[in-house]
TrEMBL record:
Residues 1-23 form the signal peptide. It comes from the Bacteria. This is Glycoside hydrolase family 2 protein. The keyword GTP-binding does not apply. It comes from Pedobacter jamesrossensis. Residues 309-607 form the Glycoside hydrolase family 2 catalytic domain.
Length: 613
């Protein structure tokens, strides 16, 4: 215990973080490692395109006890009852999972589906609070338990939870009904226009989470900024309870021989601990430490990596050393099963493909992926770019839309703030340059920085030029920490060798990063390289791009080409070469590598030698 010295609420920065705790969601952090009961499995469903279970024939929202409301479905028992709906095993569906992949009739469905299951519960442990936690539901979830509404959540890619009042719980056959609606809308995030499949459903894990009356809601534990250069490192952060209390919380990192008892008088506490022996997290050596947080009533464990990421003199640095991001963009989808990815196994598969490419980074596009992904990235040693789906033309003039974006941002950061792999929070993708948009986006950047000072903030900007000097001047670049640009020279303009006529500059003294570049290659279509959509064209595209990467200015910090796998998109309607697929993957629908894969891999091998000696 020689190294430990604790000082409470030391710096102004810490105080700022501390104050911002109030602004956070009520999300319970690290549910995977809490006491929980999984509600995954087979649920029953009713497809309800006219929302009959929710509105009456005058389109009035049904009252809570309306017998025809679908959340009250179990109440029919007389043979004289007029019964026009009901749940049955004949219509059953797997949770987690999108509905689109589970029956043909769902493939293009966008609308409401009611999900139902029951559960029993041991009510003898009345000292515990019980929360119903959803990893994600796309897009809107109206949640009912035993006929009572627990809440409504919007946002298809972030977690949320509701406390279940003990008064409504029964020992047997608790009736859980969720109305899921994935209709797209102009004032939602994303809006109606995207280049990915709008998979609907309860797409991620559902759990009952059991916690004591006073419990640790969330926490932040990380290496203090700049501490990587100090001989004795500082681990700092805060712990937040669900409510005010006088409570002793013990923070332990056994491997570092850290054990501190923190006295909370209020609802949270900041801490700062000195230690000398920390092995810093990196992609080459993704060291994670077991961290225990305990009170009299509970013990939570987590695995956390400690590292320092920053931008210094226009360069991207990890632990004081310049890094180059050998990235690849990834959708949360398993192409050969045409479904959303959701499990730990899926995460291993997708990130395993990225590793095969010798990538050291994944851009999790265009929305926060499930928690298994970011946890797997932590342990596999992959940097992560995590993004909210502020995509293309959101309604930038609307304060309500801004509020929705901020909520998704908060929920993303709140779930994943302790993942060392995440080095970049992105506030959006390819938003059109207007004054309203830049104001909107700059507010999101500011919000991100308010919630988390330890990472880099980005947004994927655009560049359309196909010759000459491309100077990135988007005013949003003044707010972000790196200048990230999507460019498709030779696919959406000109031919791949146009990239020979292009050079790059930015008016900002910041790292320059290609957040996308890519071309379609229809797997198995073999032709000369001038034939668009052939594997040879895509291969040529990548060869020319690599030539350009090698001529980039010194602030070139890496790239994240588009994309790891072919993916489903309703926008892609070529009758033979697309049929609802965007074929820019380096792996095809069946997981087979295309020619272009090898071009990028060779470049990444070279860059690894250069930067990761
Ligand atoms: C982009 C978008 C991405 C699309 C991609 C494409 O710039 O950011 O979501 O899928 O281009 O294939 O056109």
């Amino acid at each position: 215990m020689k190294t430990i010295k604790i000082s409470l609420i030391l710096s102004v920065v810490l105080l700022t973080v501390f104050n911002n705790l109030k602004a956070q969601t009520n999300l319970i952090h690290n549910v995977l490692n809490r006491k929980n009961i999984s509600l995954n499995g087979t649920w029953q469903y009713i497809i309800d395109p006219y929302e009959t279970g929710f509105y009456d024939y005058r389109r009035e929202e049904r009252k809570e006890n309306d017998r025809e409301a679908y959340w009250n479905t179990e109440k029919f028992d007389n043979k004289t009852d007029k019964k026009e709906f009901g749940f049955t095993d004949k219509y059953s569906i797997k949770v987690p999972g999108d509905w689109n992949s589970q029956a043909d009739k769902f493939l293009y469905y966008e609308g409401s589906v009611w999900y139902k299951r029951t559960f029993d519960i041991d009510l003898s442990k009345t000292n515990e609070r019980i929360f119903l936690h959803f990893g994600a539901v796309n897009y809107q979830a109206d949640v009912y338990l035993n006929g009572k509404k627990l809440g409504v959540h919007k946002g298809g890619f972030t977690a949320f939870n509701y406390e279940i009042p003990v008064s409504i719980l029964k020992a047997k056959e608790n009736l859980l009904v969720v109305k899921v609606d994935n209709k797209r809308a102009l004032d939602e995030i994303p809006t109606i226009n995207t280049d990915w499949w709008n998979y609907g459903g309860i797409t991620r894990d559902v759990n009952l989470v059991f916690v004591p009356q006073t419990f640790v809601q969330t926490y932040s534990i990380s290496l203090a900024k700049g501490s990587h250069v100090a001989k004795s490192k500082t681990i700092e952060g805060w712990i937040k309870l669900n409510q005010k209390a006088n409570e002793n919380v013990t923070l332990e990192i056994p491997e570092l021989k850290i054990k501190q008892v923190l006295k909370i008088d209020g609802d949270s506490i900041a801490f700062s601990v000195k230690t000398s022996a920390v092995q810093l997290w990196s992609t080459k050596s993704p060291k994670l430490y077991q961290v225990n947080i305990s009170t009299n009533a509970e013990k939570i464990t987590d695995k956390i990596g400690f590292r320092n990421v920053e931008v210094l003199d226009g360069k991207l640095m990890l632990n004081g050393k310049q890094i180059f991001l050998r990235g690849i963009s990834v959708h949360e989808e398993i192409p050969n099963e045409i479904r959303r990815a959701y499990s730990a196994k899926d995460a291993q598969h997708l990130l395993g493909q990225a590793k095969e490419l010798n990538a050291n980074m994944v851009r999790l596009a265009h929305y926060p992926h499930n928690e298994h992904m970011t946890r797997a990235a932590d342990s596999l040693g992959l940097f992560v770019w995590s993004e909210i789906p502020v995509y293309w033309t959101i309604d930038f003039s609307s304060n309500e839309v801004l509020a929705k974006a901020k909520t998704q941002l908060e929920e993303m950061i709140s779930r994943d703030r302790n993942r060392a792999s995440i080095i970049i929070w992105s506030v959006g993708n390819e938003t059109p340059v207007t004054e309203a948009r830049t104001l909107f986006m700059s507010k999101l950047v500011a919000k991100t920085k308010e919630l988390d000072q330890s990472r880099i903030v980005a947004a994927a900007l655009e560049s359309f030029g196909i010759q000459g000097v491309q100077t990135v001047e988007d005013p949003l670049g003044a707010f972000t920490d790196i200048v990230a640009v999507n460019q498709y020279i030779g696919w959406y303009g000109g031919l791949p060798d146009n990239s020979r006529k292009v050079s790059w500059a930015t008016k900002y003294n910041k790292p320059l990063f290609f957040s996308e570049t890519g071309a379609e290659g229809f797997s198995g279509l073999r032709a000369d390289s001038l034939t668009r959509f052939s594997e040879e064209f895509q291969e040529w595209y990548y060869k020319e791009q690599v030539g350009m990467f090698k001529r980039m200015p010194a602030n070139f910090a890496g790239l994240s080409p588009w994309i790891l796998n072919d993916f489903r998109s309703p926008r892609r309607n070529h009758p033979t070469l697309q049929e609802g697929w965007n074929n820019k993957g380096l792996f095809d629908h069946d997981g087979k590598k295309k020619l272009a894969f090898y071009v990028l891999k060779a470049y990444y091998d070279e860059m690894e030698k250069k930067f990761d000696k």
